[in-house]
Amino acid sequence: MATRTMMTAAAMGLALSTPALAQNNLCLPREVLVSPLAESYSEELPGRGMRQESSIFEVFRNEDGGSWTIL
User: Fold this and answer.
1) What is the pLDDT along the chain (71 residues), one digit of tens a residue?
2) How crowded is residue 33: how many other Cβ atoms within 10 Å of its Cβ?
3) Does residue 34 contact residue 42 with C-beta atoms inside 8 Å?
4) Can you give the pTM of this predicted structure?
């Protein structure tokens, strides 16, 4: 239950946040970002959402709740 609460809070924080005035929009291929999460932290993708029409986020977490990542 605590993991669901943390994921909900994280999603709400992303949805309510405003972009910084000066952002570096450097992007890596998704696989470059995701594969270390699975290999090093055993994180899997339990959910994703949409922040704006052209902006999505993904929440990764490991099964025991010891780590999580938002991309």
Assistant:
1) 455 666 666 666 655 555 555 556 668 888 898 999 999 999 999 998 988 888 889 999 998 888 999 98
2) 14
3) no
4) 0.58
